[in-house]
Design brief:
The complex is a heterodimer of chains A (about 475) and B (about 220). Chain A is α/β, with parallel strands linked by helices and about 475 residues long. Among the domains of chain A are: about 50-140 and about 200-300, NagB/RpiA/CoA transferase-like (Rossmann fold), CATH 3.40.50.10420; about 410-470, no CATH class. Chain A has 23 helices and ten strands. Chain B has a single domain (about 30-215), classed as NagB/RpiA/CoA transferase-like (Rossmann fold), CATH 3.40.50. Helix content of chain B is about 25%, strand content about 25%. Chain B has helices spanning about 5-10, 35-50, 60-70, 85-95, 110-115, 165-170, and strands at about 55, 75-80, 100-105, 120, 125, 130-135, 150-155, 160, 180-185, 190, 200, 205-215. Chain B has a six-stranded parallel beta sheet, sandwiched between helices. In chain B, strands 8-5-6-9 form a four-stranded mixed beta sheet. In chain B, β5 (about 125) and β6 form a beta hairpin. Chain B is globular and about 70 Å long. Classes of the chains: A alpha/beta (about 475), B alpha/beta (about 220). β9 of chain A pairs antiparallel with β9 of chain B, so a sheet runs across the interface. The complex binds iron/sulfur cluster. Iron/sulfur cluster binds next to α14 and α16 of chain A.
């Protein structure tokens, strides 16, 4: 099955498929176990709770003053020579970037890692305009070669093992087949070297945009992000409007949380801070830098104070690394750009609950995601809220509210609620149910597919207590 | 109305109760000062753990150390600045004709990718806690000098090692403005994108050599 056919609406079918693929489960289990252990170790010398408090505070402060900070960011970027563009939707973002590329007569684009660019399906939009976009992050390069989408927001090719990647690179690029990750990595380096030089435009994401200084911060290990933002004559950075932070001093705490939560590293190899195109006598760096601020549903989420907490996210991926559901079904099963717990609370806002109503139910509510989230997003609480909205009366602050509502089920609960408030009728009801105990059919699908048939007890708890008191 | 105005006005429409002044955040968890001696050891340890080569040397002898690094790695074309004091010292002391000393400004595009075997840069500070070197590239030592050649050699003065990133940016008042590009570099480039196997030498330099100028005073 090609990954392109994954959709959030087919979540149940996709998870059944994923669960019956032992290799896939093995790849995810191994990777997630390693990541969890490394994360824990990396906070050793820290007061992790105090640091999370600060991280949460910084993100909440940024959201509290979001419109003002965006204006400040825009003004300071412009002062630094960065052109700022605003995109209301994925279409807008695609159009803005395509036009910028066309204005430079660009034919090829080299890309650093950017989940927002995945969200707005930028590569496909550029392709429509005849512009070739090549991913340069190794994981993204592999995923693009396989014509797939990332299965994890930090490690896009985590679903593949070395043998898969070797076969793929052999078929697509003629790389010698090997089980040596180092050889494969160096082959990819050699394959991409020229492409950095010949690309007309470099496109990257942004990890933090600092309003105070007009600085775009990029976190990476490979150096492809630096090449993307340094070598081509134009750099376009694309990011969601929520990525702004107020002050520069907010950056070190978030960076400390991000690398540790994501991959259990104290630091990444590169922390790249861009505050404009080349200046004065400088001989390299892009001649033009553009920042594209993407809304795509975020300002609507912002209307609701509880949903707005989703926007605190710094995209570390810790919630998926610790999620028992994600670990078993993998990232593609969700059928959305962002998988795992963050995807379950974010995608319903971006796509509407109509197609994503199954996502919030794919949780045991064990609470692990909320416990590890470096900025303390109450993910379980938001999952419950979204479940309620999905089956509610459709008045919720989200598109597609009420789309999972089934009239019979809703009636059933209404009846239950009425009975529970009317003790006499309740008692009659209990007797009726007890009398019909044996009438429960042998198979109540889907319950009895995996569990024993439920039968009401012969005597209720209350009846038993009453008997006991009498005897 | 432009997209910008529509987005901003939607954000401003938020029905949420107007916040009273946001309470000042507590940054004390970020204050993690280290003694000077500990700073140096921590810096060395962290960088070595990240597979950087670190050589302790002195202001008087560092160009000898540099020459040794170049010889042992068989580097015959070194990119470096012309104005920075470290670059000037290197130009003065390495004039034995064994290697070409190239100013980056004179090589362009493809040439830079193919001809330079190493780049020498100065630094504007370092971080003990994470083993990071801070660079503010400029016209003399451009961004590519620490990025494109397969080996990046950087000179760090022991006196400029700060405990943490938080301390460094506050001591140097970064909030007042930054150069077009500022960098923290904490080792050679690496990736673990293939089945979590850590591999050094992804797209950036395959090796990072830090020449640490130690001070006896
Ligand atoms: S929700 Fe929290 S844990 Fe998940 S990616 Fe975002 S910041 Fe990380």
């Amino acid at each position: 099955m090609s990954v392109k056919t994954f959709t959030p609406a087919a979540f149940h079918h996709q998870s059944a498929q994923a669960l019956s693929n032992p290799q896939l489960r093995h790849n995810f289990r191994g990777a997630m176990d390693g990541l969890m252990a490394k994360r824990l170790g990396s906070f050793d010398s820290w007061d992790i709770e105090a640091l999370r408090d600060l991280g949460q505070g910084i993100r909440q402060k940024a959201l509290r003053y979001l419109p003002d900070l965006l204006e400040q960011l825009e003004a300071n970027c412009q002062r630094n020579g960065i052109t700022v563009h605003w995109a209301e939707s994925a279409d807008d973002a695609g159009r803005v970037i395509t036009e910028l590329c066309k204005a430079r007569g660009a034919q090829s684009v080299i890309k650093g890692k950017s989940m927002v660019s995945e969200e707005v399906e930028l590569n496909a939009r550029l392709a429509e305009a005849g512009i070739e976009a090549l991913e340069s992050d190794l994981g993204e390069y592999i995923v693009q070669m396989a014509e797939e989408t990332p299965s994890h927001i930090i490690m896009p090719a985590i679903h593949k093992n070395t043998a898969d990647i070797s076969t793929l690179m052999h078929q697509r690029t003629g790389t010698r087949e090997t089980n040596d990750a180092e050889e494969l990595t160096h082959a990819a380096r050699a394959q991409l070297r020229d492409r950095f030089q010949t690309a007309d435009v470099g496109i990257s994401g942004v990890n933090f945009a600092v309003a105070e200084t007009g600085t775009l911060c990029l976190v990476e290990n490979e150096g492809n992000g630096r090449l993307t933002t340094t070598v081509p004559p134009v750099h376009i950075a694309i990011t969601g409007i929520e990525k702004v932070v107020a002050e520069f001093k907010d950056v070190p705490p978030l960076y400390a949380l991000l690398t540790r939560s994501a991959i259990g590293q104290n630091v990444t190899t590169y922390f790249n801070m861009i505050s404009g195109p080349r200046r004065g006598q400088e001989v390299d760096g892009p001649e033009e830098v553009h920042l594209v601020l993407v809304d795509n549903g975020r300002s609507r989420m912002y209307q609701d104070e509880e949903y707005a907490e989703t926007l605190q996210c710094i995209r570390c991926g810790a919630c998926m690394n610790h999620c028992p559901v994600y670990t078993r079904v993998g990232g593609h099963t969700y059928g959305t750009t962002y998988p795992g717990p963050i995807g379950k609370i974010l995608m319903p806002h971006l796509l509407g609950l109509n197609t994503t109503k199954n996502l919030p139910t794919a949780s045991s509510l064990c609470g692990a995601c909320g416990e590890v989230c470096p900025v303390r997003i109450p993910i379980p609480k938001l999952l419950v809220r979204l479940r309620n909205e999905a089956v509610g009366e459709g008045k919720g602050n989200i598109e597609g509210a009420g789309s999972a509502r089934r009239p019979m089920e809703a009636m059933g609960w209404k009846l239950f609620s009425w009975l529970a408030r009317h003790p006499r009728c309740w008692r009659v009801g209990v007797r009726v149910v007890q009398a019909c105990r044996s009438a429960v059919p042998k198979r109540v699908a889907p319950w009895t597919d995996n569990r024993v048939r439920p039968t009401p007890a012969a005597t209720s708890l209350k009846q038993q207590l009453a008997q006991r008191r009498r005897s | 109305m432009s997209a910008r105005d529509r987005i901003l006005s939607r954000l401003r429409e938020r029905a949420a109760p107007a916040p009273t002044q946001f309470t000042e955040l507590d940054y004390s968890v970020m204050h993690r000062p280290l003694d000077a001696a500990v700073r140096k050891t921590r810096f060395l340890e962290s960088l070595r753990a990240a597979r950087a080569e670190v050589i302790e040397t002195t202001e008087a002898t560092w160009t000898d150390a540099l020459a040794k690094v170049l010889d042992s790695r068989e580097i015959t074309a070194l990119g470096l600045g012309e104005i920075h004091p470290w670059a000037q010292a290197a130009r003065r002391d390495l004039k034995d004709g064994r290697r070409r000393l190239v100013s980056f400004a004179s090589v362009k595009g493809r040439e830079a990718f193919e001809r330079l075997e190493a780049g020498l840069t100065s630094s504007c500070g370092a971080i003990a806690e994470t083993g990071s070197v801070c660079l503010w590239p400029d016209a003399d030592e451009p961004r590519s000098l620490s990025l494109i050649p397969p080996v990046h050699i950087v000179v760090v003065d022991e006196r400029h090692i700060y405990s943490s990133f938080f301390e460094l940016q506050s001591a140097q008042s970064w909030h007042k403005g930054l150069p077009s590009n500022a960098l923290l570099i904490s080792g050679p480039s690496k990736t673990a994108d293939i089945e979590q196997t850590l591999v050094f030498g992804a797209h950036g330099p395959k090796a990072l050599v830090v020449l640490l100028i130690t001070r006896s005073d």
